[in-house]
Amino acid sequence: MPKIAPPPLKNDCFALPPGVEWTPVDDALALLRDRLHPVAGVETLPVGQACGRVLAQDVIAQRSNPPLPNTAVDGYGFAGGRPEGPHVLPLAEGRAAAGVPFAGAVPEGQALRVLTGAPLPEGVDTVILEEDVTVQDGHIAFNGPLKAGANTRKAGEDVQAGALALPGGRRLTPADLALLSAVGVAEVPVRAPLRVGVLSTGDELRDPGQAAGPGQIYDANRPMLLAMLQRMGFVPVDLGRVGDDRAALRDRLDQAAQQTDAILTSGGASAGDEDHVSALLRAAGALQEWRIALKPGRPLALGLWQGTPVFGLPGNPVAAMVCTLIFARPALGLLAGEGWQQPQGFDLPAGFAKRKKPGRREYLRGRVRDGRVEVFHSEGSGRISGLSWAEGLVELPDGPLDIQLGDPVRFIPYGSFGL
After folding, report:
1. Sheet of strand 195-201, all strands in order from the earlier edge strand to the far edge
2. How do residues 250-280 score in pLDDT, each as one tens digit?
3. Furthest-apart CA pair in the chain: how many Å?
4. 352: how many CB neighbours lie within 10 A of its CB?
5. What is the C-alpha separation between 110 and 225, in angstroms, rounded?
6. 332: Cβ contacts below 8 Å, ≥ 6 apart
7. According to the model, what pLDDT value does residue 282 have?
8. Does 296 sit behind a cis peptide bond, omega within 30 degrees of 0 on the bond before it?
């Protein structure tokens, strides 16, 4: 199959409806879901090389699994079930094994030695476990009852030839490769890996290992975001960091647009004097600032740079991580061709008390201990240690809430986002 390039995104894909100021989280997610589409191309790979790739279309089983009726155990096969009581059957010559079927038919009233996975020969539809049998003088003896069809597998009881094996949009796992191989699929159409660039901005940033003077901080976002993208199944592209220099940032974005399918920036994404990401996107006519009713977080700068989507994340690492998980993760999945992935959460008893005001959705750093959800002792968005302490997010709805110990709360493990 030739490589196929999907259509580019529209310049207004991030435009908000007129009059919208503060956007509820669910509305923002719906806008992303409805306006984005896959941008990753399509290629064909051998099944053995496709783990982690996203299926570009449905895959149909070429062969039934199992292809023939077979035995599920080592034992002895014969026709029909047996009622309660003792039974003795003569043994037919030979045996049936996986890959070495029995040639011929088993006469009525006789039994045949069969091994696990062996196709059932004509005259055999029931198998008794060898542990339940006594073998002596060319006969077997066992006690009933035994139902007809016991310890056997029907042809195609797992997957029938011509049936859907796996749906398009699925990110292939090792178990999927086993299934595809079993149903005779040798090659699959998959999406090219989504390449996502990560760029940090700001004069105050230094890389770990460099000397940091007064007023300077180490760049925590870039290593975090690059690692998150890799764990999520995307190809991270380190775009480095750029100081508060608009011309240098423009050049870096120009380069990034040629080598990535999407770009995550952190810092410089609001309306301040040194927020050059927003300024450049605005000058290009491709900026949308989504003021999302979210805590932690602030407006997301969304736009296209030479046709490449740019997600302008907050500079604060806690807000950057939360916004990446809640907004960028499902959006990037859609761009990658795996559809809109809704993270799975679990309602668990709260191990904390909290009163929440209406107006914003809140995400607390949490973890589960002894069946209850704990939250980090501080909600301060500068507390990066809370991200490391946590094992997921506690999602509190938009409205007012008075949580008492033991009340159910929604916990979303990091693993639900692919981390």
Report:
1. 22-23, 287-292, 300-305, 308-313, 262-266, 195-201, 235-242
2. 888 899 999 999 999 987 555 454 466 777 7
3. 96
4. 18
5. 67
6. 194, 196, 229, 232, 234, 262
7. 72
8. yes
